[in-house]
Structure formats: structure tokens, C-alpha cells
Amino acid sequence: MADKDERAQRLAAQLRANLHRRKAQARAAAQAEPARDDGEKPVTPDA
User: Fold this and answer.
1) Residue 32 lies in a domain
2) Looking at the record's lineage, which domain of life comes first (predicted)?
3) What is the DSSP string of 4-46?
């Protein structure tokens, strides 16, 4: 039973670390890409 508890603790720690990593990536992406406020739509090339 202790093995299951240890496994659950490791999984929880990995999930927390993954969440922190994803949040940091999202913050970095938001800072790197400033929001457009000029009312223009982005130009997309015709495919």
C-alpha cells in the first residue's frame, strides 16, 4: 500500500511541475506577442 502512496505523491508532484511549466510558457508567450489594439485584422496569405 505504501508503494501506491509513493506513486500517487510522485504523480502529484509531476502534475504540479507540469502545470507550473505550462503557466510559465503561457506567460512568456503573452509577453512576447503584444496584443493588437489598432482595430486591424491580421493579414493572412491566400492558400
Assistant:
1) no
2) Bacteria
3) HHHHHHHHHHHHHHHHHHHHHHHHHHHHHSPPP-SSPPPP---
